[in-house]
Amino acid sequence: MAVLDSASPLLPSILAPLHLLAYSTLLGAELYQSFVMTKVAHQSLPRSAFTSLQKRLFLIYFQGQSVLLVVVAASVPPYGPASFVQDKSIWTPFAVAGICAGLNLISYGPKTRRLMIERIHQETHDRRNGVSADAVSDGMSSLNRAFSRAHAMSIHLNLITIGATLFYGWKLAAMLKIDSVVFD
């Protein structure tokens, strides 16, 4: 790493603040969206409004989560991605979070969204065909099962991503060297 030290002595002083800001934004967004926003919206909005909101928000959330994971990985102090060579143990939480976030972005998020929309269309179709609001048609039952599986997988992948983010945060906090600082 001596080559990196001499190549850009400013690199660590630029990467460290960027890394902390990106990491804190990632963790804050994950926790807020997963545990505050979703719960408040579910309790406060009618089902159709909640569904409409969720189908728009989660695509943005999964995109933002993935971009922030890349920024956090690219800004690992002191040398960015080259720091992974120095400490291979930090690869694990990034690999776990990246794989899970990627699966939600590419597969389970879109699948859950598609099934959510199909359930709305099926509900409209059932009402037009005289199926009472209390009854569940075979089509709706099938869509409910598929949605439950995809949604559960998406939730679990998101929780694993949050866990990996918290694990990395613990490692990051252990690496910090805090000196006595006096602010004037």
Describe this protein's structure.
The chain crosses the membrane at residues 20-37, 58-78, 90-109, 150-170. This is TMEM205-like domain-containing protein. InterPro entries: TMEM205-like (IPR025423), Xanthocillin_Biosynth-Assoc (IPR053009). Keywords: Membrane, Transmembrane, Transmembrane helix. Residues 21-120 form the TMEM205-like domain. This protein starts with a helix and ends in a 9-residue tail after the last helix. The mean pLDDT is 91. The protein has helices at 2-7, 11-44, 47-74, 83-86, 91-128, 138-175. Helix content is 80%, strand content 0%. The protein has one domain. The chain has six helices and no strands. It is mainly α and 184 residues long.
Low-confidence stretches: none
Counted beta strands: 0
Average pLDDT level: 91
Largest β-sheet summary: none
Number of helices: 6
Strand percentage: under 5%
InterPro entries: TMEM205-like (IPR025423), Xanthocillin_Biosynth-Assoc (IPR053009)
Domain TMEM205-like: 21-120
Keywords: Membrane, Transmembrane, Transmembrane helix
Pfam families: DUF4149 (PF13664)
